UniProtKB/TrEMBL annotation:
<keyword id="KW-0539">Nucleus</keyword>
<dbReference type="GO" id="GO:0043565">
    <property type="term" value="F:sequence-specific DNA binding"/>
</dbReference>
<dbReference type="InterPro" id="IPR038441">
    <property type="entry name" value="THAP_Znf_sf"/>
</dbReference>
<dbReference type="GO" id="GO:0003700">
    <property type="term" value="F:DNA-binding transcription factor activity"/>
</dbReference>
<keyword id="KW-0479">Metal-binding</keyword>
<keyword id="KW-0175">Coiled coil</keyword>
<comment type="function">
    <text>DNA-binding transcription regulator that regulates endothelial cell proliferation and G1/S cell-cycle progression. Specifically binds the 5'-[AT]NTNN[GT]GGCA[AGT]-3' core DNA sequence and acts by modulating expression of pRB-E2F cell-cycle target genes.</text>
</comment>
<dbReference type="GO" id="GO:0001935">
    <property type="term" value="P:endothelial cell proliferation"/>
</dbReference>
<feature type="domain" description="THAP-type">
    <location>
        <begin position="1"/>
        <end position="90"/>
    </location>
</feature>
<dbReference type="GO" id="GO:0005654">
    <property type="term" value="C:nucleoplasm"/>
</dbReference>
<dbReference type="InterPro" id="IPR006612">
    <property type="entry name" value="THAP_Znf"/>
</dbReference>
<keyword id="KW-0238">DNA-binding</keyword>
<dbReference type="GO" id="GO:0008270">
    <property type="term" value="F:zinc ion binding"/>
</dbReference>
<keyword id="KW-0805">Transcription regulation</keyword>
<keyword id="KW-0131">Cell cycle</keyword>
<keyword id="KW-0863">Zinc-finger</keyword>
<protein>
    <recommendedName>
        <fullName>THAP domain-containing protein 1</fullName>
    </recommendedName>
</protein>
Length: 103
């Protein structure tokens, strides 16, 4: 079974040689989990059992959200999120367009 990103509107798939890395929701840190849930527009009262199954691909994080290698250290095989990383909030593109271009 091929896993897909659970970010609304994203169709990235977790397949071999994918340029994206896929990340689990933080389930033990309640405050951080709520931020992730809000960023994806998921209902705040969604059961943890369901949230554990969700994944978000690296396309929804900035480069600053990932750990970097130190000089002289080998390149990491996969990208690892910092503990404080939160996906970029889902933006209503119509509203964003109106705010930017029709102001």
């Amino acid at each position: 079974m091929v896993r897909t990103c659970d970010y609304p509107g994203c169709s990235n798939k977790d397949v071999a040689d994918s340029p994206q890395s896929f990340h689990r929701f933080p389930v033990t840190d309640v405050a951080l989990r709520k931020l992730w849930v809000l960023a994806l527009g998921i209902h705040v009262d969604t059961k943890v059992e369901k949230i554990k199954k969700l994944r978000v691909c690296s396309a929804h994080f900035s480069d600053d959200d990932f750990l970097s290698t130190c000089p002289g250290q080998r390149q990491m095989k996969k990208r690892i999120l910092k503990k404080s990383a939160v996906p970029a909030p889902q933006v209503n593109k119509t509203v964003a367009y109106q705010l930017i271009y029709e102001a």
